[in-house]
Amino acid sequence: MYKRILVFIPMYNCEKQISRVLAQIDESIQSAELEVMVVDNRSTDNSRERAKEALAHLKGCSAKLVQNEDNYSLGGSHKVAFNYAIDQGFDYLIVLHGDDQGNIHDVWPLIEQEELARYECLLGSRFAKGSQLVGYSRFRIFGNVMFNWLISSVIRRKVTDMGAGLNAYRVSFLKSKFYMPFPNDLTFNVFMLFYTVWQRSCFRFFPLTWREDDQISNAKLFQQSMRILSLTKDYVFHSKDIFAQKENSYSQKEYAYHIVYEHNVKDFND
Question: What pTM was computed for the model?
Answer without folding.
Answer: 0.94
